[in-house]
Amino acid sequence: MPTFTPNPMPTSNGARIVGKGASTAAGPGPDVMAASTLDGDKILSSDGEEVGKIKDIMLDVQSGRIAYAVMSSGGFLGIGDKLLAIPWNALTLDTSRKCFLLNVSSERVRSAPGFDKDQWPSMADTGWGSTVHAYYGREPYWESVDPVVPPHDDPGRH
């Protein structure tokens, strides 16, 4: 399987989008889509290994930004799996392969700090969040400013 090497930092605070239809799709996606359509999507590591699946999308209600994707990793049929918070800006949505790409090795993902489904961390805690962002080599979303994104010229997209 080919490896993935995105730019070291995304151009915005959100997940990057690559693949067929990334900038030309009509309808609600891929720029705007229901979070439920992403549930269960695979996450591939930089070495091409499937390291988990999207379980939840965590929204920072105060800012309106997506903070984290919660990834389920390991286990069997949801039993014994480990949950990991992945900073949203560490992910790239690949619309062609219908998966997310994470520019971290599978070994690093296996060693990542995780949590149990019955004991979630306080994701609003900036100390915890800073540690998670640093682990994945990303700037915390609350410390960066969203760039102004010009509207698309296609009137059908508005």
UniProtKB/TrEMBL annotation:
Region (Disordered): 1-29
Highest taxon in the source lineage: Bacteria
Domain PRC-barrel: 31-104
Parts forming coiled coils: none
InterPro entries: PRC-brl_dom, PRC_barrel-like_sf
Protein name as it appears in the record: Sporulation protein YlmC with PRC-barrel domain
Organism whose genome encodes this protein: Paraburkholderia eburnea
